[in-house]
Amino acid sequence: MGSVEDEEPASKRMKLASTEFRALSNGSSKDLMARPLPSEGDNGKVIGSRGVIKRDEFVRIIANALYSLGYKNSSARLEEESGIPLRSSSVNIFMQQILDGNWDESIKTLHKFGLSNENMVKSACFLILEQKYLELLEIDKVMEALKTLRTEIAPLSINIDRIHELSSFVMSPSRSGLIGEENSRGKSRTKLLEELQKLLPPAIMIPENRLEDLVEQALLLQRDSCVYHNASDQEMSLYMDHDCGKHKIPSQTFQVLQAHSDEVWFLQFSHNGKFLASSSSDLSAIIWEVNSYGKFSLKHKLSGHQKPVSLISWSPDDNQLLTCGVEEVIRRWDVSTGKCLHVYEKAGFGMLSCGWFPDGKSILAGINDKSISMWDLDGRELDSWKGQRISKISDLEISDDGKNIITICRETAILLLDRETKTDRWIEEDQAITSFQLSKDNKFLLVNLLNQEIHLWSLVGEPNLVCKYTGHKRARFVIRSCFGGLEEAFIASGSEDSRVYIWHRGSGELIKALAGHSGSVNCVSWNPTNPHMLASASDDHTVRIWGVKGLNVESKNAYSNGVHYCNGGA
Length: 570
Known about the structure:
Elements: H1 10-26, E1 46-47, E2 53-54, H2 55-68, H3 72-82, H4 89-100, H5 103-111, H6 118-138, H7 142-153, H8 160-168, H9 185-199, H10 210-225, E3 252-257, E4 264-269, E5 275-280, E6 284-290, E7 296-303, E8 309-314, E9 320-325, E10 330-334, E11 340-344, E12 351-356, E13 362-367, E14 371-376, E15 381-385, E16 396-398, E17 404-410, E18 413-418, E19 423-428, E20 433-438, E21 444-449, E22 453-458, E23 464-470, E24 481-484, E25 490-493, E26 500-504, E27 510-514, E28 521-526, E29 534-538, E30 543-547, E31 559-560, E32 563-565
Antiparallel strand pairs: 1-2, 3-30, 3-32, 4-5, 5-6, 6-7, 8-9, 9-10, 10-11, 12-13, 13-14, 14-15, 16-17, 17-18, 18-19, 20-21, 21-22, 22-23, 24-25, 25-26, 26-27, 28-29, 29-30, 31-32
Helix pairs in contact: 1-3, 1-4, 2-3, 4-5, 5-6, 6-7, 6-9
Subunit structure: Interacts with RANBPM.
Keywords: Cytoplasm, Repeat, WD repeat
Main location: cytoplasm
């Protein structure tokens, strides 16, 4: 390549470009061919440590970004100093012709670009002529509009459905507003330019916000490759490569909740993250309130069950709570008062599981006669599904649209029941299933197995096994796992070795094994609104709240209202 001295001075090249651009207002048609922009000599060199960035492309993208940000003078100075124009003179003329409504001239200019893709040229012509047609209709030049439709748009022989739609506009009683937002020609023509920019090759018209898109892609790639990513995207910076580190994973015990008098079997955060409910073999359930500092206090202790409370389910609005006794009854509670609002039971049979329908007006119950019942809030049965629908040990999930019911129907099978089509699908495992949880987006199911494995299944289309998680211990008890963290990027599980295990959801890599409990950890729940807060329930009669370093805990090492506050340690 030639040296810098081989080329014309930058100022001279810029004067030429400025002269050509001024021809827009003079109607000049000189130099309309969209020739390749300068790429010889120093301007054609690559930059960057790996030599994959073309210098001229890089400069044009920066100039384009400056214009988009409103720094027009800075962008023009960059073009002048670098000698690399943002766009060729013919493209500048084409853009001005569009903004001025010189439709026929703009199409002539388009054809002079020398584009080899005939379909692309036709599509661009269609967009331009469509705008011409709509503007003619708007000013009641109906015959000219019809001529444009019949002799210019129709012969392109593309987008026939749109042509029929355009022809119907002629009969419209009011043709105002056809061309775009707020009946503004300027705005609709600017929108047309944006559409053409997306359609034409980037070498001719650089896509809008191209630099922003590239930078965003780089940031998201770094985020997605960060195994420990559990922080808001707002915390990412352009100044350094992104790496969260393990400290973003909740791994420090900040509180120990000690109000249960026996093994704690189940716990679940409310949807809004402001409450935590736990249930125990002491025949009770407890509602804990989370204040703005992340500290827990006992709100209500719910008594009335005659058997251990095995499951809990929050209403969609978090104002009510269901509790299920082991093969006993289901109770519905008012969260604000702690009052029992209703008891659901079926004569001669016991309840195994419970859940809410998305509208909050009805509930679902798994019954030990292997059936599932749907009741309104007053206990009237609305529907039922009989046969082998539920096993003795069962969880129950309902999709957010209320169409699908998910339950363990056999020792090694999960039933996906479609209420609308009355069809069944199954997830078949080789080992006995002990529990499962549905992801927030309803696209994945987390399944705990007897063989000390946790399987992640995709429910999109036919059920498909996506990932396996191992390392935790399970020999005798029902151990539950959950999705959690930012965008549910992690999997957490209890374990019979008294630890809480955390894996990266996508890779299956074991990230943390949290010690602190002195008995089997039966259940875990990740706060859905705080990615740095995790709760675990144990046979040691306690619930532990796990967080990250730096959390401000005002009370330290003090017992109050069934809560033990810790100073960031186990």
